[in-house]
Amino acid sequence: MTAIDAEASVTPDEVTLVERARDGDMRSYERLVVRYQAPMYRLAVRMLADRADAEDVVQEVFLNAWRRLDQLHDAEAFVGWLYRMTTNRCLNVIRARRPQVDVDLDTAESPRADTRPDHAVQISSQLEALTEALTRLTPEQRACWLLREVHGLSYEEIAEIVETNTTAVRGRIARARAQLFEVMQPWR
């Protein structure tokens, strides 16, 4: 069972919600937005390293999804469709940046408040280093790595989302892992 399938199995009424939304039922679409807004935001904020840009991307994706819902032929493909739109929009934002913007380190999740201060500083420094290392990957490598390692999608799902084949996805992830391994070596 893939990550998207597992997510869909938790919400058996998703297909019904998509079909109702396609018929113009705004409440059904709002339920879909509430259900999938957080995962799309997490993907966007990690790809873009900027909360404001991520919020804009997610808002635009859900607005475009609403407008183009009639173009989605298979209601069961809704989640994958959202991932694809979010990833592609993030890639477009990254490509449009000239020069690349500084990393917004506030996007890293803060360490737990109940940890020791020295441990919290170490975790914060590691997250900062990882965030910086992710910005050094190509946008395509970053997208594939995040979809695999953070969102747990299969190579096949990622290939469909980024519109390439599984061999290219595996290569991008392998290069991303190698580069991240090198950059994160001091933290081992």
From TrEMBL:
Checking CDD domains in the record gives: Sigma70_r4 (cd06171)
> Which Pfam family is one of this chain's hits?
Sigma70_r2
Gene3D superfamilies found in the cross-reference section: 1.10.1740.10, Winged helix-like DNA-binding domain superfamily/Winged helix DNA-binding domain
Which keywords accompany this UniProt record? Answer: DNA-binding, Sigma factor, Transcription, Transcription regulation
Gene Ontology molecular function terms on file: DNA binding; sigma factor activity
Which residue intervals define the domain RNA polymerase sigma factor 70 region 4 type in the entry? Answer: 128-180
Domain named RNA polymerase sigma-70 region: which ranges?
32-98
Q: Would you indicate the residue range of the signal peptide? A: none
- Name its GO BP terms in alphabetical order: DNA-templated transcription initiation
Would you identify the family this protein belongs to, as annotated? Belongs to the sigma-70 factor family. ECF subfamily.
The molecule here is called RNA polymerase ECF family sigma subunit
Give the species. Nocardia puris
The taxonomic lineage of its organism, from the top, reads: Bacteria, Bacillati, Actinomycetota, Actinomycetes, Mycobacteriales
